[in-house]
Protein backbone atom coordinates (compact mmCIF):
# COMPACT_ATOMS: atom_id res chain seq x y z
CA UNK A 1 0.00 0.00 0.00
CA UNK A 2 2.74 2.45 0.98
CA UNK A 3 4.75 1.57 -2.13
CA UNK A 4 1.66 2.17 -4.29
CA UNK A 5 1.29 5.64 -2.79
CA UNK A 6 4.99 6.34 -3.38
CA UNK A 7 4.59 5.18 -6.97
CA UNK A 8 1.69 7.57 -7.56
CA UNK A 9 3.72 10.37 -6.03
CA UNK A 10 6.69 9.46 -8.20
CA UNK A 11 4.58 9.56 -11.38
CA UNK A 12 3.16 12.93 -10.32
CA UNK A 13 6.61 14.47 -9.82
CA UNK A 14 7.83 13.07 -13.14
CA UNK A 15 4.88 14.84 -14.78
CA UNK A 16 5.72 18.09 -12.97
CA UNK A 17 9.33 17.84 -14.14
CA UNK A 18 8.32 17.27 -17.75
CA UNK A 19 5.95 20.25 -17.59
CA UNK A 20 8.77 22.46 -16.31
CA UNK A 21 11.45 21.32 -18.75
CA UNK A 22 9.31 21.02 -21.88
CA UNK A 23 6.38 23.42 -21.58
CA UNK A 24 8.01 26.15 -19.47
CA UNK A 25 11.79 26.02 -20.02
CA UNK A 26 11.10 24.95 -23.59
CA UNK A 27 9.79 28.46 -24.29
CA UNK A 28 13.43 29.47 -24.26
CA UNK A 29 15.21 26.21 -25.07
CA UNK A 30 13.30 25.56 -28.29
CA UNK A 31 12.93 29.20 -29.36
CA UNK A 32 14.37 30.53 -32.62
CA UNK A 33 17.76 32.29 -32.74
CA UNK A 34 17.49 35.95 -31.90
CA UNK A 35 18.02 38.74 -34.42
CA UNK A 36 19.22 42.23 -33.60
CA UNK A 37 18.39 45.60 -35.08
CA UNK A 38 20.92 48.26 -34.08
CA UNK A 39 19.18 51.06 -32.19
CA UNK A 40 22.16 53.25 -31.23
CA UNK A 41 20.28 54.72 -28.28
CA UNK A 42 22.46 56.64 -25.81
CA UNK A 43 23.71 54.14 -23.20
CA UNK A 44 25.34 54.54 -19.82
CA UNK A 45 27.38 51.47 -18.84
CA UNK A 46 27.49 51.27 -15.05
CA UNK A 47 30.19 49.38 -13.15
CA UNK A 48 30.31 49.34 -9.35
CA UNK A 49 33.63 48.31 -7.80
CA UNK A 50 35.00 47.80 -4.32
CA UNK A 51 38.68 46.86 -4.12
CA UNK A 52 38.77 45.59 -7.70
CA UNK A 53 42.08 47.09 -8.83
CA UNK A 54 43.32 43.91 -10.48
CA UNK A 55 40.10 43.12 -12.34
CA UNK A 56 39.56 46.71 -13.47
CA UNK A 57 43.06 46.86 -14.94
CA UNK A 58 42.37 43.70 -16.88
CA UNK A 59 38.81 44.28 -18.07
CA UNK A 60 38.42 48.04 -18.53
CA UNK A 61 40.02 47.99 -22.03
CA UNK A 62 37.19 45.67 -23.14
CA UNK A 63 34.60 48.20 -22.00
CA UNK A 64 36.20 51.26 -23.54
CA UNK A 65 36.75 49.55 -26.92
CA UNK A 66 33.11 48.69 -27.64
CA UNK A 67 31.84 49.16 -31.20
CA UNK A 68 29.17 51.62 -30.17
CA UNK A 69 29.15 55.30 -30.96
CA UNK A 70 27.02 56.76 -28.20
CA UNK A 71 27.87 55.54 -24.73
CA UNK A 72 29.48 56.61 -21.49
CA UNK A 73 31.05 54.46 -18.78
CA UNK A 74 30.11 55.29 -15.20
CA UNK A 75 32.71 53.86 -12.82
CA UNK A 76 31.56 53.76 -9.20
CA UNK A 77 34.22 53.43 -6.52
CA UNK A 78 32.46 52.12 -3.42
CA UNK A 79 34.91 53.27 -0.73
CA UNK A 80 37.76 51.05 -1.92
CA UNK A 81 40.87 50.71 0.22
CA UNK A 82 43.16 49.74 -2.69
CA UNK A 83 44.02 51.75 -5.83
CA UNK A 84 40.63 51.34 -7.51
CA UNK A 85 39.72 55.03 -7.16
CA UNK A 86 43.10 56.18 -8.49
CA UNK A 87 42.67 53.94 -11.51
CA UNK A 88 39.19 55.32 -12.16
CA UNK A 89 40.42 58.89 -11.98
CA UNK A 90 43.23 58.10 -14.41
CA UNK A 91 40.76 56.55 -16.87
CA UNK A 92 38.53 59.63 -16.62
CA UNK A 93 41.49 61.78 -17.64
CA UNK A 94 42.28 59.55 -20.63
CA UNK A 95 38.75 58.96 -21.96
CA UNK A 96 36.14 61.70 -22.36
CA UNK A 97 33.25 59.22 -22.09
CA UNK A 98 34.30 57.97 -18.64
CA UNK A 99 32.69 59.38 -15.50
CA UNK A 100 33.77 58.55 -11.94
CA UNK A 101 31.40 58.43 -8.98
CA UNK A 102 33.20 58.43 -5.63
CA UNK A 103 31.33 56.85 -2.75
CA UNK A 104 32.63 57.32 0.78
CA UNK A 105 31.51 55.25 3.75
CA UNK A 106 28.11 56.38 4.94
CA UNK A 107 27.03 55.45 8.46
CA UNK A 108 23.46 54.67 7.36
CA UNK A 109 24.48 52.70 4.28
CA UNK A 110 27.92 51.36 5.15
CA UNK A 111 29.00 48.59 2.81
CA UNK A 112 25.70 48.68 0.89
CA UNK A 113 26.22 48.22 -2.84
CA UNK A 114 22.68 49.45 -3.53
CA UNK A 115 23.53 52.84 -2.10
CA UNK A 116 26.60 53.09 -4.36
CA UNK A 117 24.63 51.98 -7.40
CA UNK A 118 21.91 54.54 -6.67
CA UNK A 119 24.48 57.33 -6.75
CA UNK A 120 25.87 55.97 -10.02
CA UNK A 121 22.42 55.73 -11.63
CA UNK A 122 21.62 59.31 -10.64
CA UNK A 123 24.95 60.48 -12.06
CA UNK A 124 24.43 58.73 -15.43
CA UNK A 125 23.65 61.25 -18.17
CA UNK A 126 21.73 58.76 -20.35
CA UNK A 127 18.31 57.24 -19.69
CA UNK A 128 19.23 53.75 -20.89
CA UNK A 129 21.47 51.93 -18.42
CA UNK A 130 23.57 48.78 -18.94
CA UNK A 131 25.05 47.06 -15.89
CA UNK A 132 27.92 44.68 -15.35
CA UNK A 133 30.22 43.86 -12.43
CA UNK A 134 33.84 44.85 -11.97
CA UNK A 135 34.99 41.24 -12.23
CA UNK A 136 33.09 40.72 -15.51
CA UNK A 137 33.93 41.45 -19.09
CA UNK A 138 31.96 41.47 -22.35
CA UNK A 139 32.80 38.56 -24.63
CA UNK A 140 32.42 40.75 -27.71
CA UNK A 141 33.05 44.32 -28.82
CA UNK A 142 29.38 44.30 -29.87
CA UNK A 143 28.03 43.71 -26.36
CA UNK A 144 26.41 47.14 -26.03
CA UNK A 145 25.03 46.91 -29.57
CA UNK A 146 23.39 43.57 -28.88
CA UNK A 147 21.96 44.36 -25.45
CA UNK A 148 20.62 47.78 -26.49
CA UNK A 149 19.05 46.31 -29.65
CA UNK A 150 16.29 44.74 -27.57
CA UNK A 151 15.00 48.04 -26.21
CA UNK A 152 11.68 49.26 -27.59
CA UNK A 153 9.26 51.92 -26.44
CA UNK A 154 7.51 49.28 -24.30
CA UNK A 155 10.36 46.85 -23.56
CA UNK A 156 12.49 48.87 -21.18
CA UNK A 157 14.09 46.04 -19.19
CA UNK A 158 16.52 43.64 -20.92
CA UNK A 159 17.75 40.47 -19.19
CA UNK A 160 21.11 39.19 -20.44
CA UNK A 161 23.33 36.17 -19.81
CA UNK A 162 26.36 36.29 -17.55
CA UNK A 163 28.56 33.25 -18.13
CA UNK A 164 31.62 31.94 -16.30
CA UNK A 165 35.02 31.11 -17.72
CA UNK A 166 35.73 27.47 -18.53
CA UNK A 167 38.44 25.72 -16.52
CA UNK A 168 39.77 22.57 -18.11
CA UNK A 169 39.51 19.31 -16.14
CA UNK A 170 37.55 20.94 -13.32
CA UNK A 171 34.34 19.20 -12.29
CA UNK A 172 33.48 22.09 -9.94
CA UNK A 173 33.69 24.45 -12.90
CA UNK A 174 31.17 22.32 -14.81
CA UNK A 175 28.87 22.37 -11.78
CA UNK A 176 29.08 26.17 -11.55
CA UNK A 177 28.45 26.64 -15.25
CA UNK A 178 25.56 24.15 -15.35
CA UNK A 179 23.90 25.83 -12.37
CA UNK A 180 24.33 29.19 -14.13
CA UNK A 181 22.88 27.71 -17.34
CA UNK A 182 19.86 26.31 -15.48
CA UNK A 183 19.24 29.62 -13.69
CA UNK A 184 19.39 31.55 -16.97
CA UNK A 185 17.11 29.04 -18.70
CA UNK A 186 14.59 29.56 -15.92
CA UNK A 187 14.54 33.35 -15.89
CA UNK A 188 14.66 33.59 -19.70
CA UNK A 189 11.78 31.13 -20.05
CA UNK A 190 9.56 32.78 -17.45
CA UNK A 191 10.25 36.16 -19.06
CA UNK A 192 9.12 34.79 -22.43
CA UNK A 193 5.97 33.42 -20.79
CA UNK A 194 5.28 36.86 -19.34
CA UNK A 195 6.27 36.19 -15.73
CA UNK A 196 9.80 37.64 -15.39
CA UNK A 197 11.16 37.25 -11.88
CA UNK A 198 14.92 37.90 -11.84
CA UNK A 199 17.99 38.96 -13.73
CA UNK A 200 21.73 39.05 -13.01
CA UNK A 201 23.71 42.21 -12.40
CA UNK A 202 26.56 40.81 -14.47
CA UNK A 203 24.50 41.59 -17.57
CA UNK A 204 21.35 43.64 -17.16
CA UNK A 205 19.88 46.73 -18.83
CA UNK A 206 16.94 48.99 -18.11
CA UNK A 207 15.58 52.49 -18.63
CA UNK A 208 16.17 54.90 -15.78
CA UNK A 209 12.40 55.46 -15.48
CA UNK A 210 11.96 51.85 -14.36
CA UNK A 211 14.34 52.53 -11.48
CA UNK A 212 12.46 55.58 -10.24
CA UNK A 213 8.99 54.05 -10.73
CA UNK A 214 9.72 51.61 -7.89
CA UNK A 215 11.75 54.15 -5.87
CA UNK A 216 14.96 52.37 -6.72
CA UNK A 217 16.16 49.89 -4.13
CA UNK A 218 14.40 51.59 -1.20
CA UNK A 219 11.95 48.74 -0.51
CA UNK A 220 14.79 46.25 -0.06
CA UNK A 221 17.69 48.55 0.83
CA UNK A 222 18.24 46.71 4.11
CA UNK A 223 18.72 43.43 2.22
CA UNK A 224 22.41 43.55 1.34
CA UNK A 225 22.08 41.47 -1.83
CA UNK A 226 19.47 41.71 -4.57
CA UNK A 227 20.41 44.86 -6.46
CA UNK A 228 19.68 42.78 -9.54
CA UNK A 229 17.17 39.99 -8.83
CA UNK A 230 15.10 41.79 -6.17
CA UNK A 231 14.93 44.90 -8.33
CA UNK A 232 13.80 42.90 -11.36
CA UNK A 233 11.34 40.93 -9.24
CA UNK A 234 9.75 44.21 -8.23
CA UNK A 235 10.03 46.27 -11.42
CA UNK A 236 9.56 43.75 -14.23
CA UNK A 237 6.26 42.84 -15.85
CA UNK A 238 4.82 41.04 -18.85
CA UNK A 239 4.85 44.21 -20.92
CA UNK A 240 8.13 45.92 -20.01
CA UNK A 241 10.64 43.04 -19.99
CA UNK A 242 12.47 41.17 -22.73
CA UNK A 243 15.59 39.02 -23.03
CA UNK A 244 18.81 39.03 -25.04
CA UNK A 245 20.68 35.80 -25.73
CA UNK A 246 22.69 36.48 -28.88
CA UNK A 247 26.28 35.17 -28.52
CA UNK A 248 27.72 38.69 -28.76
CA UNK A 249 25.56 39.85 -25.85
CA UNK A 250 27.19 37.65 -23.20
CA UNK A 251 29.45 38.74 -20.38
CA UNK A 252 31.91 36.45 -18.64
CA UNK A 253 33.26 36.23 -15.09
CA UNK A 254 35.97 34.34 -13.30
CA UNK A 255 34.32 31.41 -11.47
CA UNK A 256 35.06 30.28 -7.95
CA UNK A 257 37.77 27.64 -7.76
CA UNK A 258 36.91 26.05 -4.41
CA UNK A 259 33.70 24.44 -3.26
CA UNK A 260 33.67 26.53 -0.05
CA UNK A 261 33.82 29.87 -1.89
CA UNK A 262 31.15 28.79 -4.38
CA UNK A 263 28.94 27.53 -1.55
CA UNK A 264 29.19 30.92 0.18
CA UNK A 265 28.33 32.69 -3.07
CA UNK A 266 25.23 30.52 -3.51
CA UNK A 267 24.21 31.16 0.10
CA UNK A 268 24.06 34.87 -0.68
CA UNK A 269 22.04 34.29 -3.84
CA UNK A 270 19.52 31.96 -2.23
CA UNK A 271 19.06 34.25 0.78
CA UNK A 272 17.34 36.83 -1.43
CA UNK A 273 14.77 34.42 -2.87
CA UNK A 274 12.56 34.64 0.23
CA UNK A 275 11.82 38.26 -0.75
CA UNK A 276 10.46 37.32 -4.19
CA UNK A 277 6.77 37.63 -5.04
CA UNK A 278 4.66 34.74 -3.75
CA UNK A 279 4.11 33.16 -7.17
CA UNK A 280 7.83 33.22 -7.93
CA UNK A 281 8.65 31.60 -4.60
CA UNK A 282 5.99 28.98 -5.30
CA UNK A 283 7.18 28.05 -8.80
CA UNK A 284 10.83 27.89 -7.74
CA UNK A 285 9.93 25.83 -4.68
CA UNK A 286 7.76 23.43 -6.66
CA UNK A 287 10.52 22.93 -9.21
CA UNK A 288 13.09 22.07 -6.55
CA UNK A 289 10.70 19.82 -4.58
CA UNK A 290 9.86 17.93 -7.76
CA UNK A 291 13.57 17.45 -8.52
CA UNK A 292 14.39 16.15 -5.05
CA UNK A 293 11.26 13.99 -4.81
CA UNK A 294 11.94 12.46 -8.21
CA UNK A 295 15.39 11.31 -7.12
CA UNK A 296 14.38 10.03 -3.69
CA UNK A 297 11.25 8.19 -4.86
CA UNK A 298 13.04 6.69 -7.87
CA UNK A 299 15.71 5.28 -5.55
CA UNK A 300 13.15 3.84 -3.10
CA UNK A 301 10.94 2.26 -5.75
CA UNK A 302 13.89 0.68 -7.56
CA UNK A 303 15.36 -0.53 -4.26
CA UNK A 304 12.12 -2.41 -3.54
CA UNK A 305 11.67 -3.33 -7.25
CA UNK A 306 8.14 -1.94 -7.13
CA UNK A 307 6.68 -1.57 -10.64
CA UNK A 308 10.31 -1.40 -11.73
CA UNK A 309 9.59 -1.59 -15.48
CA UNK A 310 7.23 1.40 -15.35
CA UNK A 311 9.53 3.24 -12.95
CA UNK A 312 12.52 2.70 -15.23
CA UNK A 313 10.49 3.85 -18.22
CA UNK A 314 9.41 7.04 -16.44
CA UNK A 315 12.99 7.72 -15.34
CA UNK A 316 14.16 7.31 -18.94
CA UNK A 317 11.43 9.61 -20.27
CA UNK A 318 12.20 12.24 -17.66
CA UNK A 319 15.90 12.28 -18.47
CA UNK A 320 15.22 12.26 -22.21
CA UNK A 321 12.98 15.34 -22.02
CA UNK A 322 15.23 17.22 -19.60
CA UNK A 323 18.38 16.42 -21.55
CA UNK A 324 16.77 17.68 -24.77
CA UNK A 325 15.48 20.87 -23.15
CA UNK A 326 18.71 21.74 -21.36
CA UNK A 327 20.78 20.60 -24.33
CA UNK A 328 19.10 23.12 -26.63
CA UNK A 329 19.46 25.83 -23.97
CA UNK A 330 23.15 24.95 -23.55
CA UNK A 331 23.70 25.27 -27.30
CA UNK A 332 22.16 28.75 -27.26
CA UNK A 333 24.33 29.88 -24.35
CA UNK A 334 27.57 28.19 -25.46
CA UNK A 335 27.63 25.70 -22.58
CA UNK A 336 27.25 22.42 -24.48
CA UNK A 337 30.18 20.68 -22.78
CA UNK A 338 28.47 20.63 -19.36
CA UNK A 339 25.68 18.43 -20.73
CA UNK A 340 28.00 15.42 -20.99
CA UNK A 341 28.02 15.32 -17.19
CA UNK A 342 24.41 16.40 -16.76
CA UNK A 343 22.91 13.59 -14.58
CA UNK A 344 25.81 13.67 -12.09
CA UNK A 345 25.90 17.47 -11.94
CA UNK A 346 22.15 17.66 -11.38
CA UNK A 347 22.26 15.22 -8.46
CA UNK A 348 25.16 17.13 -6.91
CA UNK A 349 23.35 20.48 -7.24
CA UNK A 350 20.06 19.15 -5.83
CA UNK A 351 21.69 17.98 -2.62
CA UNK A 352 23.89 21.08 -2.43
CA UNK A 353 20.72 23.18 -2.51
CA UNK A 354 19.33 21.13 0.35
CA UNK A 355 22.53 21.83 2.28
CA UNK A 356 22.26 25.54 1.42
CA UNK A 357 18.70 25.68 2.72
CA UNK A 358 19.54 24.20 6.10
CA UNK A 359 22.79 26.18 6.44
CA UNK A 360 20.98 29.48 5.81
CA UNK A 361 18.38 28.56 8.43
CA UNK A 362 20.99 28.76 11.17
CA UNK A 363 23.33 31.52 10.01
CA UNK A 364 23.34 34.53 7.72
CA UNK A 365 25.75 34.70 4.75
CA UNK A 366 28.18 37.57 4.27
CA UNK A 367 27.53 40.03 1.45
CA UNK A 368 29.15 42.93 -0.44
CA UNK A 369 32.78 43.29 0.51
UniProtKB/TrEMBL annotation:
The chain crosses the membrane at residues 6-26, 284-302, 308-331, 338-358. One of its GO terms (molecular function) is glycosyltransferase activity. The keyword Disulfide bond does not apply. Pfam families: Glycos_transf_2. It comes from Flavobacterium chuncheonense. Belongs to the glycosyltransferase 2 family. Its EC number is 2.4.-.-. InterPro entries: Glyco_trans_2-like, Nucleotide-diphossugar_trans. Residues 44-163 form the Glycosyltransferase 2-like domain. It is an enzyme of class 2 (transferase). Keywords: Glycosyltransferase, Membrane, Transferase, Transmembrane, Transmembrane helix. The lineage of its organism: Bacteria, Pseudomonadati, Bacteroidota, Flavobacteriia, Flavobacteriales. This is Glycosyltransferase.
Amino acid sequence: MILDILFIGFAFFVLIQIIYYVLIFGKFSFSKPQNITTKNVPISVIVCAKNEEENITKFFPLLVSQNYSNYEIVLIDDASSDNTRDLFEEYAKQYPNVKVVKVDNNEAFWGNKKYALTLGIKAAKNDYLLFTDADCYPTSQNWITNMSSQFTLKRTIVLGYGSYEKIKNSFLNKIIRYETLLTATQYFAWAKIGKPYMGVGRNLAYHKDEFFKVRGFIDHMKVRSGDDDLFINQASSKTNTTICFTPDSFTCSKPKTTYASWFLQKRRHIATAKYYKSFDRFQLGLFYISQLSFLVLAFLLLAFQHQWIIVTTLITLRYLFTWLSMGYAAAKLNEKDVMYWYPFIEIFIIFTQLNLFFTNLFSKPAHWK
